[in-house]
Amino acid sequence: MSSLLKRASAPLLALMAACVLAQAVAGPAFAATITDVAGRTIELELPAKRVIIGEARQIHVIAALKGAHAFDTVVGWRDDLIKKDPDSYAAYIERFPDIARLPRFGYVPQGDFSLESAVALAPDVLTLNLEAAKTAKEDGFEEKAAAAGIKIVYLDFRLDPDKNTEKSIDLLGQIFGATERAEAFKAYRRAEIARVTDRLAAAKNLDRPKVFIERAPGITGDNHCCRTFGPVNFGKMVDLAGGQNIADGIIKTTFGDLSAEQLIVSDPDHVIVTGSNWAAESDLNQFVSVGRGADLTLAKAKLVDLMKRTPFPEVKAVKTGAVHAVWHQFYGAPYEFVPIQQFAKWFHPDLFADLDPEQTFREFHEKFLPVSYKTGYFVSLDRGVN
Asked: Nearest-5° angle of CA 384, CA 245, CA 168?
């Protein structure tokens, strides 16, 4: 027995034994060549036997592909789920209590990912988000990982979702031996988005309301306005839902800042802020905590307070109460069909009176996910009384 195994704790040995059993159940691996979203060609055996998830929020996809077997071949993950999305972490820890013992890693671009600790786990694959690629290459992380026999695969659900989301689902389907499930997931996602886009396309004389969507206010630092989204990510969701993102043509990148003057001049019909449970990271605690099982009374109170900042009291949407909050983590998982449906109901309530986004997300949980559904992903102020 190696010195590594001699030093391993009983819980870790149990996890390793579970991985061996999962490999036997999954069947033999085969040599393959894949191309990740960074355009890199990787030769590896599929499905992978031991995987480190370089962003734990990728579990939102992996769980949809593997269900009750989501963690069978996961040997470590980044610490972001417990820090940035603790409500989802609580759901998964309840369903899979052994994951509390999974080794956790930092973030490659911040320099706190321990490659030495990763090597000790003998992973076949390390999945990273695309935004880590520049640092990983320039700092020699890619080269060192390759020398240790670790295959890095870049995914992207955030920077350019139109281009990379389905590709990333496919890659995870290959890595985890769930290609058929990946096809089913993609088909479901497309169909639910089409429930909105098809109806909008058929609508005559569609009036697109002006929308400002603010990225994650109230977490840290100066709580000023107006961090927003360009033509992708939440900005694209606004467009698909029949709204007009006021940052279109101004912000060309995924994220950017509008001035308070630009917000006043645009005078949006709707304001949406993104929020999540950021209690572990916030020094302000002024964010709107929406997400699985959120206290929506408290969330609404936080949303009211955020709208007291300059220049929001001068904006039409705030005066009429057309102010909303959406779960921030939709921006990094291919569950965007849910906010697209909810945005459509906010923007065009008569056209989408029969659409029930909450039922859609509940059904998605029942069809694809191993964790139960709880409400709390959206909140709005009262129209016309603010």
From this structure: 125
pLDDT tens digits along 176-221? 999 999 999 999 999 999 999 999 999 999 999 999 999 999 998 7
- Under the banding of pLDDT at 50, 70 and 90, the label for residue 20 is very low
Strands (E), 122-185: 125-129, 151-155
pLDDT at position 28 is 65
77 three-class SS: strand
Burial-class residue 232 by CB neighbours within 10 Å (0-12, 13-18, 19+): buried
Domains of the chain: 3-185 (3.40.50.1980), 205-380 (3.40.50.1980)
Burial of 356 (0-12, 13-18, 19+ CB in 10 A): middle
DSSP code per residue over 199-260: HHHH-SS----EEEEE-STTSSS---S-EEE-SSTHHHHHHHTT-EETTTTT--SSEEE--H
3-class DSSP state of 188: helix
The verdict on pTM exceeding 0.85 is: yes
How many Å apart are CA 314 and CA 316, to the nearest integer?
7
d(CA 278, CA 84): 6
DSSP conformational letter for 347: H
